[in-house]
Specification:
This protein is of the alpha/beta class. It is built from eleven helices and twelve strands. The structure holds ligand PBG. The site of ligand PBG has 10 residues, from helix 6.
Protein backbone atom coordinates (compact mmCIF):
# COMPACT_ATOMS: atom_id res chain seq x y z
CA UNK A 1 0.00 0.00 0.00
CA UNK A 2 1.07 3.53 -0.63
CA UNK A 3 -0.46 6.98 -1.05
CA UNK A 4 -3.39 7.76 -1.00
CA UNK A 5 -4.27 4.70 1.16
CA UNK A 6 -1.26 5.46 3.32
CA UNK A 7 -1.08 8.95 4.79
CA UNK A 8 1.69 9.54 7.29
CA UNK A 9 0.14 12.81 8.43
CA UNK A 10 -2.81 10.96 10.05
CA UNK A 11 -0.78 10.27 13.18
CA UNK A 12 0.45 13.83 13.44
CA UNK A 13 -2.93 15.57 13.49
CA UNK A 14 -3.23 16.52 17.14
CA UNK A 15 -0.89 17.17 20.04
CA UNK A 16 -2.46 14.23 21.92
CA UNK A 17 -1.73 11.85 19.05
CA UNK A 18 1.80 13.17 18.81
CA UNK A 19 2.32 12.78 22.56
CA UNK A 20 0.85 9.27 22.52
CA UNK A 21 3.29 8.22 19.84
CA UNK A 22 6.36 9.94 21.26
CA UNK A 23 9.32 7.56 21.11
CA UNK A 24 11.85 9.69 22.96
CA UNK A 25 11.00 12.05 25.77
CA UNK A 26 13.24 14.14 27.94
CA UNK A 27 13.30 13.38 31.61
CA UNK A 28 15.33 15.53 34.01
CA UNK A 29 16.36 12.36 35.89
CA UNK A 30 18.48 11.49 32.89
CA UNK A 31 20.38 14.76 32.86
CA UNK A 32 23.66 15.10 34.76
CA UNK A 33 24.34 18.58 36.16
CA UNK A 34 28.00 19.75 36.04
CA UNK A 35 29.45 21.82 38.89
CA UNK A 36 32.80 23.63 38.97
CA UNK A 37 34.17 24.17 42.45
CA UNK A 38 37.30 26.22 43.15
CA UNK A 39 39.56 26.18 46.17
CA UNK A 40 40.31 29.44 48.02
CA UNK A 41 37.65 31.69 46.56
CA UNK A 42 34.83 33.17 48.60
CA UNK A 43 32.58 34.49 45.83
CA UNK A 44 31.35 32.78 42.66
CA UNK A 45 33.43 33.65 39.60
CA UNK A 46 31.66 33.79 36.25
CA UNK A 47 33.12 31.94 33.28
CA UNK A 48 33.07 34.26 30.29
CA UNK A 49 33.02 31.58 27.59
CA UNK A 50 30.33 29.58 29.43
CA UNK A 51 27.55 32.17 29.83
CA UNK A 52 25.41 31.67 32.92
CA UNK A 53 27.98 29.34 34.49
CA UNK A 54 30.27 30.01 37.44
CA UNK A 55 33.08 28.54 39.46
CA UNK A 56 31.69 28.09 42.95
CA UNK A 57 33.40 28.48 46.30
CA UNK A 58 33.20 25.43 48.56
CA UNK A 59 30.66 27.20 50.77
CA UNK A 60 28.16 27.32 47.91
CA UNK A 61 28.34 23.78 46.49
CA UNK A 62 25.78 22.23 48.79
CA UNK A 63 23.21 24.82 47.69
CA UNK A 64 24.07 23.97 44.08
CA UNK A 65 23.31 20.31 44.83
CA UNK A 66 19.91 21.47 46.06
CA UNK A 67 19.49 23.53 42.89
CA UNK A 68 20.14 20.42 40.80
CA UNK A 69 17.46 18.52 42.74
CA UNK A 70 15.06 21.44 42.30
CA UNK A 71 15.49 21.11 38.54
CA UNK A 72 14.49 17.44 38.81
CA UNK A 73 18.02 16.16 38.20
CA UNK A 74 19.26 13.17 40.19
CA UNK A 75 22.96 13.69 39.74
CA UNK A 76 25.76 16.25 39.73
CA UNK A 77 29.18 15.99 38.11
CA UNK A 78 32.02 17.59 40.09
CA UNK A 79 35.05 19.29 38.56
CA UNK A 80 37.66 20.86 40.84
CA UNK A 81 40.00 23.79 40.43
CA UNK A 82 42.77 23.52 43.05
CA UNK A 83 44.63 26.45 44.60
CA UNK A 84 47.96 24.86 43.67
CA UNK A 85 48.96 22.98 40.54
CA UNK A 86 52.25 21.10 40.32
CA UNK A 87 54.10 18.56 38.18
CA UNK A 88 52.68 15.57 40.03
CA UNK A 89 49.06 16.55 40.56
CA UNK A 90 49.35 16.09 44.32
CA UNK A 91 46.18 17.99 45.23
CA UNK A 92 44.07 15.70 43.03
CA UNK A 93 44.03 12.94 45.63
CA UNK A 94 44.47 15.00 48.82
CA UNK A 95 42.13 13.98 51.63
CA UNK A 96 41.00 17.58 51.96
CA UNK A 97 41.28 18.41 48.25
CA UNK A 98 38.67 20.64 46.70
CA UNK A 99 36.58 17.87 45.13
CA UNK A 100 36.86 15.65 48.21
CA UNK A 101 35.62 18.53 50.39
CA UNK A 102 32.85 19.35 47.92
CA UNK A 103 31.66 15.73 47.96
CA UNK A 104 31.36 15.88 51.77
CA UNK A 105 29.54 19.21 51.72
CA UNK A 106 26.98 18.10 49.15
CA UNK A 107 26.49 14.68 50.73
CA UNK A 108 25.84 16.33 54.09
CA UNK A 109 23.00 18.40 52.72
CA UNK A 110 21.55 16.26 49.91
CA UNK A 111 22.14 12.77 51.32
CA UNK A 112 21.14 9.79 49.23
CA UNK A 113 18.70 11.81 47.12
CA UNK A 114 21.50 13.06 44.88
CA UNK A 115 24.05 10.97 42.98
CA UNK A 116 27.48 12.60 43.16
CA UNK A 117 29.79 11.81 40.26
CA UNK A 118 33.48 12.74 40.46
CA UNK A 119 35.60 13.40 37.37
CA UNK A 120 38.84 11.45 37.76
CA UNK A 121 41.50 13.29 35.79
CA UNK A 122 44.74 15.18 36.29
CA UNK A 123 44.71 18.10 33.84
CA UNK A 124 43.18 20.51 36.38
CA UNK A 125 45.87 19.61 38.95
CA UNK A 126 48.99 19.55 36.77
CA UNK A 127 51.01 22.72 36.14
CA UNK A 128 51.50 21.56 32.54
CA UNK A 129 47.77 20.94 31.99
CA UNK A 130 48.08 17.38 30.68
CA UNK A 131 45.96 14.46 31.87
CA UNK A 132 48.87 12.40 33.12
CA UNK A 133 52.44 12.39 34.39
CA UNK A 134 54.81 14.16 31.98
CA UNK A 135 58.49 13.33 31.49
CA UNK A 136 60.53 14.83 28.64
CA UNK A 137 57.39 16.34 27.12
CA UNK A 138 55.69 12.96 26.94
CA UNK A 139 52.48 12.00 28.73
CA UNK A 140 53.27 8.66 30.36
CA UNK A 141 50.56 6.04 30.44
CA UNK A 142 51.39 3.40 33.04
CA UNK A 143 52.76 5.62 35.83
CA UNK A 144 49.59 7.74 35.54
CA UNK A 145 47.33 4.76 36.30
CA UNK A 146 48.35 4.60 39.95
CA UNK A 147 47.48 8.28 40.41
CA UNK A 148 44.05 7.81 38.84
CA UNK A 149 43.41 4.93 41.25
CA UNK A 150 44.41 7.14 44.19
CA UNK A 151 42.05 9.92 43.08
CA UNK A 152 39.15 7.47 42.79
CA UNK A 153 39.80 6.03 46.25
CA UNK A 154 40.06 9.52 47.79
CA UNK A 155 36.68 10.41 46.25
CA UNK A 156 35.18 7.17 47.57
CA UNK A 157 36.51 7.93 51.06
CA UNK A 158 34.79 11.31 50.86
CA UNK A 159 31.48 9.64 49.92
CA UNK A 160 31.26 9.88 46.13
CA UNK A 161 28.59 7.74 44.44
CA UNK A 162 30.17 7.25 41.00
CA UNK A 163 33.69 7.84 39.63
CA UNK A 164 34.36 8.90 36.05
CA UNK A 165 37.92 8.36 34.80
CA UNK A 166 38.52 10.78 31.92
CA UNK A 167 42.27 10.86 31.30
CA UNK A 168 42.15 8.54 28.26
CA UNK A 169 45.06 6.47 29.54
CA UNK A 170 45.03 2.84 28.42
CA UNK A 171 44.01 0.54 31.26
CA UNK A 172 42.54 3.33 33.39
CA UNK A 173 39.22 1.59 34.05
CA UNK A 174 40.94 -1.58 35.27
CA UNK A 175 43.33 0.47 37.42
CA UNK A 176 40.48 2.42 39.02
CA UNK A 177 38.39 -0.74 39.55
CA UNK A 178 41.28 -2.54 41.18
CA UNK A 179 42.18 0.39 43.44
CA UNK A 180 38.56 0.82 44.55
CA UNK A 181 38.08 -2.89 45.22
CA UNK A 182 41.31 -3.14 47.18
CA UNK A 183 40.22 -0.24 49.37
CA UNK A 184 36.85 -1.91 50.01
CA UNK A 185 34.79 0.15 47.57
CA UNK A 186 33.54 -2.62 45.31
CA UNK A 187 30.08 -1.01 45.28
CA UNK A 188 31.19 2.24 43.64
CA UNK A 189 30.33 2.21 39.90
CA UNK A 190 32.58 3.50 37.13
CA UNK A 191 31.27 5.81 34.43
CA UNK A 192 34.02 5.49 31.83
CA UNK A 193 34.87 8.28 29.42
CA UNK A 194 35.43 5.59 26.80
CA UNK A 195 35.10 7.34 23.45
CA UNK A 196 36.55 10.76 24.22
CA UNK A 197 37.71 12.62 21.16
CA UNK A 198 40.46 15.26 20.87
CA UNK A 199 37.99 18.07 20.33
CA UNK A 200 37.97 21.84 19.95
CA UNK A 201 34.61 21.89 21.70
CA UNK A 202 36.30 21.70 25.13
CA UNK A 203 37.59 25.29 25.00
CA UNK A 204 35.15 26.89 27.48
CA UNK A 205 35.64 24.00 29.95
CA UNK A 206 39.38 24.58 29.83
CA UNK A 207 38.80 28.26 30.58
CA UNK A 208 36.55 27.23 33.47
CA UNK A 209 39.00 24.71 34.87
CA UNK A 210 42.23 26.44 33.86
CA UNK A 211 43.25 23.12 32.32
CA UNK A 212 44.58 23.89 28.84
CA UNK A 213 47.77 22.01 28.03
CA UNK A 214 50.78 24.33 28.33
CA UNK A 215 52.55 22.58 25.46
CA UNK A 216 51.31 20.42 22.59
CA UNK A 217 47.77 19.05 22.57
CA UNK A 218 45.90 15.94 23.70
CA UNK A 219 45.95 14.13 20.36
CA UNK A 220 48.20 11.29 21.46
CA UNK A 221 45.76 10.20 24.16
CA UNK A 222 42.31 11.49 23.16
CA UNK A 223 40.75 9.99 20.02
CA UNK A 224 41.14 10.96 16.38
CA UNK A 225 38.06 12.81 15.09
CA UNK A 226 37.93 10.86 11.82
CA UNK A 227 37.58 7.44 13.41
CA UNK A 228 34.68 5.22 14.42
CA UNK A 229 36.30 1.82 14.72
CA UNK A 230 38.54 2.75 17.63
CA UNK A 231 35.56 4.12 19.54
CA UNK A 232 34.07 0.64 19.48
CA UNK A 233 37.37 -0.88 20.61
CA UNK A 234 37.72 1.66 23.44
CA UNK A 235 34.19 0.88 24.64
CA UNK A 236 34.72 -2.86 24.36
CA UNK A 237 37.95 -2.66 26.36
CA UNK A 238 36.39 -0.46 29.03
CA UNK A 239 33.50 -2.88 29.46
CA UNK A 240 35.98 -5.75 29.76
CA UNK A 241 37.90 -3.74 32.39
CA UNK A 242 34.75 -3.28 34.46
CA UNK A 243 33.01 -0.10 33.29
CA UNK A 244 29.41 0.10 34.53
CA UNK A 245 28.45 2.88 32.09
CA UNK A 246 30.26 4.20 29.06
CA UNK A 247 30.45 7.70 27.63
CA UNK A 248 30.70 9.28 24.20
CA UNK A 249 32.17 12.79 24.17
CA UNK A 250 31.51 15.30 22.64
CA UNK A 251 27.95 14.50 21.65
CA UNK A 252 26.62 16.74 18.88
CA UNK A 253 29.27 16.08 16.26
CA UNK A 254 29.46 12.42 17.37
CA UNK A 255 25.85 11.21 17.28
CA UNK A 256 26.92 8.41 14.94
CA UNK A 257 29.24 7.11 17.67
CA UNK A 258 26.38 7.15 20.19
CA UNK A 259 24.22 5.19 17.73
CA UNK A 260 27.02 2.70 17.08
CA UNK A 261 27.56 2.23 20.82
CA UNK A 262 23.84 1.62 21.30
CA UNK A 263 23.74 -0.93 18.47
CA UNK A 264 26.79 -2.81 19.71
CA UNK A 265 26.72 -2.84 23.50
CA UNK A 266 24.29 -3.60 26.28
CA UNK A 267 25.28 -1.01 28.81
CA UNK A 268 24.03 2.45 29.84
CA UNK A 269 25.35 5.06 27.40
CA UNK A 270 26.18 8.58 28.54
CA UNK A 271 26.46 11.46 26.06
CA UNK A 272 28.50 14.48 27.13
CA UNK A 273 26.96 17.64 25.66
CA UNK A 274 30.22 19.55 26.15
CA UNK A 275 31.02 23.15 26.97
CA UNK A 276 31.53 24.42 23.41
CA UNK A 277 28.18 22.95 22.36
CA UNK A 278 26.49 24.83 25.19
CA UNK A 279 28.31 28.09 24.45
CA UNK A 280 27.32 28.05 20.78
CA UNK A 281 23.66 27.78 21.72
CA UNK A 282 24.01 30.53 24.32
CA UNK A 283 25.76 32.88 21.90
CA UNK A 284 23.12 32.42 19.21
CA UNK A 285 20.28 32.70 21.74
CA UNK A 286 21.74 35.90 23.21
CA UNK A 287 21.59 37.39 19.74
CA UNK A 288 17.98 36.17 19.34
CA UNK A 289 19.08 34.16 16.30
CA UNK A 290 17.51 30.99 17.68
CA UNK A 291 14.93 30.17 20.32
CA UNK A 292 17.02 28.75 23.15
CA UNK A 293 14.44 26.55 24.84
CA UNK A 294 13.22 24.78 21.73
CA UNK A 295 16.73 24.39 20.34
CA UNK A 296 17.96 22.87 23.60
CA UNK A 297 15.03 20.44 23.63
CA UNK A 298 15.76 19.48 20.03
CA UNK A 299 19.47 18.93 20.69
CA UNK A 300 18.90 16.82 23.78
CA UNK A 301 16.12 14.71 22.28
CA UNK A 302 18.42 14.15 19.30
CA UNK A 303 21.00 12.67 21.64
CA UNK A 304 18.32 10.45 23.19
CA UNK A 305 17.18 9.34 19.75
CA UNK A 306 20.76 8.49 18.81
CA UNK A 307 20.85 6.15 21.82
CA UNK A 308 21.97 8.11 24.87
CA UNK A 309 20.46 6.97 28.16
CA UNK A 310 21.98 9.83 30.13
CA UNK A 311 23.22 13.26 29.08
CA UNK A 312 25.77 15.43 30.86
CA UNK A 313 24.70 18.97 30.00
CA UNK A 314 25.25 22.52 31.21
CA UNK A 315 21.65 23.18 30.15
CA UNK A 316 20.53 21.02 33.10
CA UNK A 317 20.51 24.10 35.32
CA UNK A 318 17.62 25.54 33.26
CA UNK A 319 15.72 22.35 32.50
CA UNK A 320 12.57 23.42 34.38
CA UNK A 321 12.15 26.45 32.18
CA UNK A 322 12.55 24.60 28.92
CA UNK A 323 10.50 21.50 29.74
CA UNK A 324 7.41 23.51 30.62
C1 LIG B 1 39.05 16.46 31.91
C2 LIG B 1 37.82 16.85 31.20
C3 LIG B 1 37.64 17.73 30.11
C4 LIG B 1 36.27 17.82 29.91
C5 LIG B 1 35.66 16.98 30.84
N1 LIG B 1 36.64 16.38 31.61
C6 LIG B 1 38.60 18.57 29.35
C7 LIG B 1 39.57 18.00 28.41
O1 LIG B 1 39.62 16.80 28.13
O2 LIG B 1 40.37 18.81 27.93
C8 LIG B 1 35.59 18.68 28.89
C9 LIG B 1 34.15 18.91 29.13
C10 LIG B 1 33.53 20.04 28.38
O3 LIG B 1 34.10 20.62 27.44
O4 LIG B 1 32.40 20.36 28.75
N2 LIG B 1 40.01 15.82 31.18
Amino acid sequence: MSFPAVRMRRLRRTQALRDMLDQNTLNPSHLIYPIFVEENISQSVSISSLPGYVRLPLAKVAAEGKAALAQGCKSVFLFGIPAKKDEEGVSSYAKDGIVQNAIREIKNVCGAELVIIGDVCLCEYMSHGHCGIVRDNEVLNDPTLELLGKIAVSYAEAGVDVVAPSAMMDGQVAAVREALDEAGYDQIPIMAYSAKYASSFYGPFREAAGSSPKFGDRKNYQMNQGNQREALREIELDIAEGADMIMVKPALAYLDIIALAKANFNIPIVAYNVSGEYSMVKAAADNAWIDEKSVVREILVGMKRAGADLIVTYHAKDIKSWLN
